Amino acid sequence: MVDLPEGEYDISVIAFKRGSGPGLYYEWKDGVPYYGEPINSSLTNSMYGPNRIQMRDSLYSMQLFDPQDSTKSLPLKFIAEVDGYHGRKVVAVNGTPSVVTLEMKRMAFGVQLSADNFTEGKLHAEFIGNGAMLPKTVTPENMGGHFIYTLHSFIGQEDTYSRLLNVRITWEKADGTMVPLGEKPVYFKRNILTTIHVTIPGPDEGTILDPVIIESEWVKIETEEF
Fold first, then answer.
1. What is the residue range of 25's domain?
2. Inside any domain, residue 87
3. What span, in angstroms and rounded, lies between the C-alpha atoms of 211 and 199?
4. Distance (Å, rounded) from C-alpha 225 to C-alpha 174?
5. Would 26 be classed as within a structural domain?
6. Residue 58 lies inside a defined structural domain of this protein
7. Whole-angstrom distance, CA of residue 44 vs CA of residue 67
8. How far apart are CA 175 and CA 116, in angstroms?
9. Could you list the mean pLDDT of each consecutive 10-residue stretch along the chain, which spans 226 residues?
10. pTM of the model as a whole
């Protein structure tokens, strides 16, 4: 609960779930976790009045843990691997206690890698376009999952990201040889899982340069409680 003087207030809320990524990066300060970009504050599960220093209302460039070294964060990228939500509402405060219900809209899209004849080595995906996203790598053992990314632009525009990203797929064979499998432009869409499917060429086949793009609604719709 927070006490506010009478008047009209524009309430904006952002919320994060870890999703498929390594989680929002934080350091311990004064016994509580202090989060980096874009929060730049400690979170104490408390509410504050209007004199509280404001945090940036942003889903851009979030600092995430480096999965190889938990004392470091990954390089900042425009689109981060985290599951983000946003809600906004204008309310009038008249001195009478009230409960404000705020609908949270998911600001994320999903990416899944799929391949035929993929039995060895690694599959690398690069997302080319203003350094927007970190590359991803999968092996035959961990294929099948998907990666969730949050995009701030979904707050103020249509549900399709207006900037085209080129997705480049490369197969790293067991002996370290790199085999290009193709590159294709993709428009990512809010709450849509985009599957990028490639075929690993056999020993007597040439390189296949036509990745297939498949879009589908997420398997289920969940009500997220924060």
1. 7-42+54-106
2. yes
3. 8
4. 44
5. yes
6. yes
7. 25
8. 19
9. 78 88 93 86 68 61 93 92 91 81 88 90 89 91 91 80 84 93 87 88 60 58 30
10. 0.82
